[in-house]
TrEMBL record:
<dbReference type="InterPro" id="IPR006059">
    <property type="entry name" value="SBP"/>
</dbReference>
<dbReference type="GO" id="GO:0042597">
    <property type="term" value="C:periplasmic space"/>
</dbReference>
<keyword id="KW-0813">Transport</keyword>
<keyword id="KW-0732">Signal</keyword>
<protein>
    <submittedName>
        <fullName>Spermidine/putrescine transport system substrate-binding protein</fullName>
    </submittedName>
</protein>
<keyword id="KW-0574">Periplasm</keyword>
<dbReference type="InterPro" id="IPR001188">
    <property type="entry name" value="Sperm_putr-bd"/>
</dbReference>
<dbReference type="GO" id="GO:0019808">
    <property type="term" value="F:polyamine binding"/>
</dbReference>
<dbReference type="Pfam" id="PF13416">
    <property type="entry name" value="SBP_bac_8"/>
</dbReference>
<dbReference type="GO" id="GO:0015846">
    <property type="term" value="P:polyamine transport"/>
</dbReference>
<feature type="signal peptide">
    <location>
        <begin position="1"/>
        <end position="25"/>
    </location>
</feature>
Length: 349
């Protein structure tokens, strides 16, 4: 994710954003995380289509959602958001129902990318990147390669104090849900309570909660085993080939980042042209090559060299395997339970 701290932590912060309205701009307005597409993508799009466009940045899903809800989507045309948030935009009536006849490059998507649980058939969102969450570790420092979430949550004595976990609600809880064999979207209070207790015990063994520098801790040797998104583990692998990534035997979540055209866009044709521009194999392939994330674009992924895939093995995880993992979904009111539970975990001594 480059400089983009990926988060689907929930919508509780949205009320705080209600005073923030739409941006004021002429031409197409695209909102994305910093570094999540080529630096010259906007200029290249304008050169290719003749459509004036502007990129505005958001730091988190919650930030852009607050603005979109406050403005009812006005002032924005295309937004990059994670799939649970795309689902919310759809449920609020803010996402455009997509006309696939205006997206010729949608044919580049893997068939599996049309089967995503949050939006079967891609009726309101187009997947941009997808991946897994697992364990990233120093193979030269661990006595044995990890293969279970419990290797992180109940670490061996010589690994205790040298582990980190993702702090964002959905992933912190997700590790516990998976370890227990539960759905990553579980909302049963009793099961969530079991996971809370497991994670409170695990907290005692952690070096830190860390969403942004965990791979650097692996590189330095300060950490030996960390909870990681696959792409971010690749940043560590790029610096030290002893760093490896594994999906535990209990599985992973499937996370998906998407592109959504806003229903209140005043530049619909330009918005379709932008999404189609990104779906061009070369343009979409930029993300795979530069932010080291898998993209759901078949010719883009097939263009990656054997040497590249050998260097970053998790980039070769196929679409069929990805779809075997449960996708993170909007859990509605369950998010309140998640937020409260994570607060309890972090406050525990």
């Amino acid at each position: 994710m480059g400089t983009k701290p990926f988060t689907t932590a929930g919508l509780s912060a949205l009320a705080l954003m209600a005073t923030l309205g739409a941006v004021q701009a002429e031409g197409l307005v695209v909102s994305n995380w910093d570094g999540y597409m080529a630096a010259d993508a906007i200029d290249s799009y304008t050169a290719a289509t003749g459509n004036a466009a502007e990129l505005v940045l958001h730091g988190t899903n919650e930030e852009i959602m607050g603005k979109l809800i406050a403005s009812k989507g006005k002032g924005y045309d295309v937004v990059f958001v994670s799939s649970p948030f795309a689902e919310v935009l759809h449920n609020l009536g803010l996402a455009e129902t997509l006309d696939h006849s205006k997206l010729s490059n949608i044919a580049n998507l893997y068939p599996e990318a049309m089967e995503l649980a949050h939006d079967p058939g891609n009726t309101f969102s187009i997947p941009y990147a997808w991946g897994t969450t697992g364990l990233c570790y120093r193979s030269d420092l661990l006595a044995e390669a990890p293969d279970s979430w419990n290797d992180l949550l109940v670490p061996a004595a010589d690994v205790s104090g040298k582990t980190t976990m993702l702090a964002t609600d959905r992933w912190l809880l997700g590790a516990g849900f998976l370890a227990k064999g539960y759905s990553v979207n579980e909302t049963d209070p009793e099961k969530v309570g079991e996971v809370r207790d497991l994670l409170i015990d695990a907290k005692k063994t952690l070096l830190a909660y860390d969403d942004t520098t965990f791979y650097a801790k692996l590189v330095s040797g300060e950490a030996e085993l960390v909870h990681a998104w696959d792409g971010w583990c690749n940043y560590g692998i790029a610096e030290n080939t002893d760093i490896k990534y594994v999906i535990p035997e209990e599985g992973s979540d499937l996370w998906v980042d998407t592109m959504v055209i806003l229903k209140n866009s005043e530049n619909k044709d330009a918005a379709y042209a932008f999404v189609d521009f990104i779906l061009d194999a070369k343009n979409h392939g930029w993300a795979a090559e530069n932010i080291l994330y898998k993209v759901p674009n078949k010719p883009a992924m097939e263009s990656l060299s054997a040497e590249f895939l050998e260097s970053f093995p998790n980039m070769a995880i196929g679409a069929e395997q990805l779809l075997s993992y449960e996708q993170l979904r909007d859990v509605g009111e369950g998010q309140r339970l998640y937020a409260r539970t994570v607060s309890e975990i972090k406050a525990a001594q």
